[in-house]
Structure formats: C-alpha cells, structure tokens
C-alpha cells in the first residue's frame, strides 16, 4: 500500500510544505511540495533527516515520571492515564494553594499555541510565553514603533529584489528554503548582496560586497549611511514626504555621524560606506536592508533594528516590488481565517500582571502576546511579582535557549512541578518531573496554519504514518489535562481531525480541500496596497513614525546618541553565536544523520590572537565568562574579527539517553550573561565578554 501525503515539515520552525511518500506504513521519501512556488521539490538537509528522527530509538517513547532526584536520569514509564492523572492532581493542588498565576507555560510558537493559551485562561494564569523575544523581540518592537505592525505581519519580496543588505543575517546557512530559492532567482536576474558580519560566513562568500565590521558597531554604520543618504538626497523623496513622520528630527540627529566618524568606530573605510549608500540608492525602491533575527544582538538592539527599518523606508521600498510588504490576511478578500480555541465565548479573561512584567513600567514595550522568557529565572528566584510554582514546557528548551544556564537551573530547582512535552530527550525533559512525548510531525495532524502574505492561504500538517511509539499530539495531551481539571468544554474535539474541522467552520474550506495540494488559497493574485495613497499604517499618526509615539510615550527617546563600543581588554573577546545549515538550534544534535555531519561545536578565534595565546588549530581551549566556563576545541582562522570569538549554538547536551549528542561541544547558554535590550525585549546574546586560554584539562 502506498500513498502520497501533503504536509508541513517541522524539523525546524520554517514549516516548509512537503510531499511525503508512504509505503506500507513507512516513510520512503520526503520532498518539498511541488505545487508551492519557491519550494517546488526543495528540502534542506534537516528536512531530509526527518526520517531518521521518526525511526530514532533514542527518542522519547512513552510518558515518563521521575523517580530519583531531578536530573539524575531515574525514570519510570507510566501509562498516559497515569501521567494525565498525576499532572492534573499536582497542578490542581498548586492552583488551589497559589492560584492559577503560579503556573507558567512556555513554548516555541507552534500551530497549537492557541490551545495552550486557552488552557492557561481556563486555569486563570496570565503566564504564557513564546520564544519570540529570544529570537526577534527587538525586531518585533522596532516594527511596531515604525509601522504599528509586528515583524510577523511583514514580509520581504526576495524574488524581485535588486540589492539586499544583510547585517549578520546568515541567509544561506541559517536558512529558510523558500526565501533562498526566491533570492537565487533574483541573483540570476542580476541582484546584488552586501553582507556585514565580523565573521566570514557562507553568505559572505556569496556576497558582492563584504564588510568585516567591528562587532557591536552596526548602528554606527547605519547612522553614517543615513547621514549620506539624507545629505545627498538619495532617498525616495516623494514616498518619504507622503508617509514619514519625523524626517527633520532624524536629519538633525545624524548630522555628527559622518562616514569618517563611522570608519573609526566600525573599521569600515568611509569611502566604502559612501559607495554603498550611493549604489543601493540607484536600485530603489527594490532594495532591502534585512532587519534580521539574531545577528548583532546587544542591549541597544531596538535602535539597530529601527535604523535598519528606517533605511528601508528611505529607499521607499514599502509595498514596492522587491521591497517590504505587509502580510495580507483573508479579510483583504472578504474571507475568514481559521478559528482559534481562544475565540470561544465564555472563555475567562485573565487580567493579572505577567511573571515577566511585560506591559508594566519595567518592560512596557515588548509584545505581551509573546512575553519575555529570559525574565523567568528572575521571576522564580525573586518571587517577583509573585511565587511561580509550576512550569509546563512545550517545544522549548529553557536550559539552552535562555542565557545563563546555571541561573536557569537554580530557578528550576525552586519549582514544585516541571512538565515537559517534547519529541526527544531534551535537557529540560531530563530535568523534569513528568515527560509527555509528543508524536513527531510525520505522525500527527496539527492545527491549521493560517499563512498570511501577498496571497492569503491556509496549510495543513497531516499525519503520514501512525505513531511509532506511545506518543500523542500536543493538542490532545492538553485536552486530557484540561478535562481532568474540569475545563473540558473549551476543548471541543476528540481527534485532531475534529479540531481541524472545528477551526475550518465558516471559512468555506473543508479538510478534504487540502488533499489535492496540501493548501488552499483565498485568492489567486498577489495583493499590494497602493503606495501613493493606500498604506494602512497602524501607528497613532497613521504615518511611518521615525519619531515614535510608542517609544516616546513610554519615556524612551526615538534617537538616543550613539554610545561607542569599547574593544575588549587584551586576551578577552566578544562571544558571538549562530547556527549552521545542518542543525536546528538545540533540537537535532542527536539526529543520527545530522550528528554525523556536525557532531560538535568549536571556537572560532582569529589567527593573530590565537598565536598570542599559544593556541593552535584543534587545541582544547577553556572559555570562561562571568557566569560559566567550559572546554571546546579551537578553530584558528583569519575569517573572524580579532575582537570576537564565535561558536555554534545548541551543543553541550546533558541528557544521557541522547547518546550521540551527550557531552559533545559546549553550550553557549552556559557562557552568555542574562542581559537584555529592555526596550525591545530581546536578550543581548552577543554582548558577553569571555576569556580564552589553552586548556590543560580534558573537555
Ligand atoms: N539551519 C538552520 N537555519 C535556521 C535556524 C536553525 O536553527 N538552523 N533557525 C532559524 C531561526 S529561528 C532564526 S532566528 C534564524 C537566525 O538567522 P540569523 O539571524 O542569520 O542568525 P545566526 O545564525 O544566529 O547568525 C548570526 C550571525 O551574526 C553575526 N554577528 C554577531 N555579532 C554581530 C555584529 O555585531 N554585527 C554583525 N553584523 N553580525 C554579527 C554572527 O557572526 C553570525 O554569523 O535562522 C533560521 N534558520
Ligand atoms: N543561548 C542561546 N539562546 C538562544 C539562541 C541562541 O543562539 N543562543 N537563539 C534564539 C532563537 S533565534 C530561537 S528561535 C530560540 C529557539 O529556542 P527553542 O524553541 O528552545 O529551540 P528549538 O531547538 O527550536 O526547539 C526546542 C525544543 O522543541 C523540541 N521539538 C521539536 N519538534 C517538536 C515537536 O514536534 N513537538 C514538541 N512538543 N517539541 C518539539 C525540540 O526537541 C527541542 O527540545 O532560541 C533562542 N535562544
Ligand atoms: S527549512 Fe528545512 S528543516 Fe526547516 S521546515 Fe524547511 S525543509 Fe524543514
Ligand atoms: Mo529564531
């Protein structure tokens, strides 16, 4: 028996549409969905390794309850009913004693996030968070400060771009399949790439221009670019006059930030800065300055992201071909989006201060729909704003994804209950009291994906094969726990198919409509708004706010003076981190195929600096920061700025049952200090200064 199933990959968060060939209950082949433009068969290495995850005997195989001390690796396998009863009993006791707010649920945003939010509202907790702030919180806030939309409500028309500038956006390694294919199309038509990074990445090698910038100084470069663009009137005057609020203030502000000044700060020659400004302006409006995710992440990140967005606006690229666009939802064409459980009548609202205090004076601007996860250890340890007792973790790895692992461990130690839902033995699963294994994406149907964009669409993840082990979909797990706590009525489904049908009610589409191609479209044509008169901006002024009411009403300046970045003292380096093409964050290091390709991380260090420290390529080095230390092999290279060292994120796992990744490499979270951009919401992951020495002990 063979069948073809259209679904969505979930080896990483990008969710590429896929076509899965199944024979006799086995997945034989996965490729990109051929019906989706920009995908057309493509799949990355991680996606191709999904079969290895499916068949991995080292993944979670059934519900587990801890029997020894936390993290000791002593476990008892239990039935689902026992696991659900236990979680419900413990949660019930905690809620009774400390209130619903003592329960925090954290997850990487996923298709079932509305299910989690519904659960928390039922139990009276305001404490849902997603990974968003850890990934791009300051980008989110910067977008809202200028346009009134979040970054998730905006997109980039890669296919038609003529020049794209990346600030540490390592596009060809930290990848998303569709944007890469679209940009490749643009490159074939003659588009140019400028890449800026203290480290030579694969993306740098594909670029037409590369700047090895001094780490942490991108904002200085941007102020100089803006200075030149305004002084030489290289911007889209008509667009800016019509839509921008605060150009005069910006002009005044950038006066002192000349290219010569920026050369001293960034190490990039002044004439090359001027050359870039002039060159990109010739291609406007089809020019994009990529606002990025994780590259260049410092305590003033919000202002870097704003400066990048301002450069886009000066190019007049908003709603232009080859520029930035606002994602269009079904409402644009009179359609209805899939329903969410949170929209149900009678579901309680929770009006309490959040654990991270987002929305209060201490963190007024980060997006309350996502929260600020890196505040969790402080909230638990200081019982501020109130005691937190239980942590439910779904598809999230706080021990690696929140900086300062030891701080996080101390906080977890204080909790009465940790429950983790995952597909594999993550470190947090290893550290939990109860572990509930989710079926992998090939084994489950998921909630509907509402895919807004130039063309609003819906996609569906469909079960390709039955679960290999005793696992369940997350939405079913939550329903079971909620039902035991007396809230079953807000989870009106028995199976995932029931839930999808419920979501689709009123949209005019049915579950069966997804069978032919894996998706449905609300319209056939791309929707651009009229750039002359029809931008539907959501700021108070209905303009693009260079002078931002969001920031200024909260007491933050729109343009704070630049603060110089001092070079680290001798023998010390700025720690930079990032991803590689064959791993997803912390998820795939134990995947048999991907582990073989990149089994551990290494520390990139500049050749001259390494010589000074007596370090040779492949030597074991000790890296220490104010909050942790560890040993890793050195990779001695000219391809990194002398002030920085670099390592891949996601290694140094401690869960013993994941034997291939156990103890391999070092975790960046062990070294990074838990500091944040308190305006934008992101952690400053590239801010920690480390000491590097030759190690005389074993890793
Ligand atoms: N293969 C793969 N692809 C992925 C992911 C994955 O896990 N694996 N994850 C996805 C996700 S969630 C994200 S957020 C994106 C992340 O995509 P990117 O934002 O491109 O992130 P990183 O890989 O973290 O690369 C960050 C780069 O910033 C550079 N950098 C550090 N400091 C500075 C600085 O001061 N200035 C400049 N200009 N550069 C600096 C680092 O050297 C590094 O090369 O990737 C997505 N794609
Ligand atoms: N120190 C440090 N911290 C970082 C970063 C960094 O570079 N360094 N990068 C930041 C960025 S950009 C991001 S996006 C975040 C990502 O942070 P996380 O969301 O924590 O990382 P992921 O590796 O994407 O996945 C987390 C967990 O989801 C599990 N998982 C995978 N598939 C499924 C599934 O189908 N169901 C369930 N229930 N679980 C599943 C994985 O096994 C893994 O344990 O981290 C941020 N934090
Ligand atoms: S980028 Fe790769 S791993 Fe991520 S969803 Fe797409 S195919 Fe899967
Ligand atoms: Mo991310």
Automatic annotation (TrEMBL):
The keyword Oxidoreductase applies. Residues 2-58 form the 4Fe-4S Mo/W bis-MGD-type domain. Its cofactor is Mo-bis(molybdopterin guanine dinucleotide). Keywords: 4Fe-4S, Iron, Iron-sulfur, Metal-binding, Molybdenum, Oxidoreductase, Signal. Gene3D superfamilies: 2.40.40.20, 3.40.50.740, ADC-like domains, Dimethylsulfoxide Reductase, domain 2. CDD domains: MopB_CT_Thiosulfate-R-like. It comes from the Bacteria. GO terms for molecular function: 4 iron, 4 sulfur cluster binding; metal ion binding; molybdopterin cofactor binding; oxidoreductase activity. Belongs to the prokaryotic molybdopterin-containing oxidoreductase family. This is Thiosulfate reductase / polysulfide reductase chain A.
